[in-house]
Amino acid sequence: MEIFLKLLELLFTFFKIGLFTFGGGYAMIPLITEEVISKGWETHQTLIDFIAIAESTPGPFAINIATFIGYEQLFIIGAVFTTLGVILPSFIIIVIIAKIFKHFADNKYVVGFLNGAKPVIVGVIFSVGVNFILLNVFSTKKVTLIKDFVFDWKTVTILVSIFLLSKIKDRIHPVVIVLASGVMGYILFGIL
Amino acid sequence: MYLTLFWTFFKIGLFTFGGGYAMIPFIHRFGVDKYQWITEDEFLNIITIAESTPGPIAINSATYIGHKVKGIRGSIAATIGVALPSVIIIILIAAFFMQFKENPHVEYAFKGVRIGVSVLVLNAAIRMYKKLDKHWISYFLIGVGFIILLFHFFSVIYVIMIGGAVGIIYQLLTVRGDTNGNLS
After folding, report:
1. So what's the ipTM on this one?
2. How far apart are CA A15 and CA A9, in angstroms?
3. Residues B51-60, buried b or exposed e (16+ Cβ, 10 A)?
4. Among residues 124-143 of chain A, which lie with CB inside 8 Å of chain B?
5. Which GO MF term does the entry hold, naming one (chain A) (predicted)?
6. Once rounded to an integer, what is the mean pLDDT over residues B62-76?
């Protein structure tokens, strides 16, 4: 019974995440962070590790991360339920569109909603990025006081070099970023 | 036919690294060129629909093409096909990852990787920003989203709904009879 309830919770949580993800994989990071951390399923750190792995393996980001968190919670059956949860909203909506609502993308309410939702999502993703940097680079728990910020030349070096690396080409592959930052982390924290 | 759909989307899921947009050329190659399941026009239509509906672009397009070819069962075959490789690969990695995680060498590398991920997330936001209409309401809504989330005022879901509501109101007030929907 307890397992059944937990599976439903996994399914429902990821259904919600799938339903509110507009504009590709990164748009789901804010909501995943919020849901999964508030429920105590993952810490910020493991979540960021998952994002790195999800970006370095084939397949859609949403499926990768849902499978990962589901597996951490209840192994294979958990992974099946989270994946199902994240897929179902798109599946249902697309089937409805394909069947009856062919001019969906031209509908003025849809267009209006997206015109308003997209900039908000951009702001939200910026916010998560800044939060990740505060957590990892300045070791703060929250945005609080300046005096809580810890400056560490190693993390700042990695941050600046990886940012510059990511700007060399227009769309550098995420795997390159993950590998390069991993190697730099290993050298700076492990060897030096 | 179900098997062809399943297998084609399985291959698409298996060979695309780095998220939904990397999949678009593969979907074109198989769906339009090789099997002619959809026309060029329908392909563009799918991309537009996928961008205006929630969920991963891979799932959206697999469901749509599957439905076009073989109805609801076709969409099930294609969607399972595109999701299955990731599920299998991630379960294998997750099973191993638990053992490697405690290793100090791996932890050093991941300390660096976490910084790299922060950069990836920021760059994703910058990329999405560049595609937005440069309009004062957009800037205002970016600010609203940023501040509300940074200080955890309320949930992401409400933030998105507020943005959507503002967008709908703006659309109804200003754009009459224009369906392309660009803010101007």
Report:
1. 0.88
2. 10
3. bbbbbbbbbb
4. 124-133, 136-137, 143
5. chromate transmembrane transporter activity
6. 95
* Tokens representing residue A40 in the block: 């105590």
Instruction: Supply B70's token pair.
Output: 């073989």
H/E element, A163: helix A153-168
Which residues does residue A173 pair with via DSSP β-bridges, in sequence order? none
Which residue in B51, B65, B64 sits closest to B21, CA to CA? B51
B12 and B68 together in one domain: yes
Which residue(s) pair with B17 in the sheet?
A58
Range of the domain at B67: 1-100
Is the Cβ of A64 closer than 8 Å to some Cβ of chain B?
Answer: yes
Question: Phi and psi of A58, rounded to 5°?
Answer: -70, 165
B108 → chain A, closest CA residue:
A186
Give the global pTM: 0.89
Looking at the fold, whether A1 and A82 belong to one and the same domain comes out as yes
B153: burial class by Cβ within 10 Å (0-12, 13-18, 19+)?
Answer: exposed
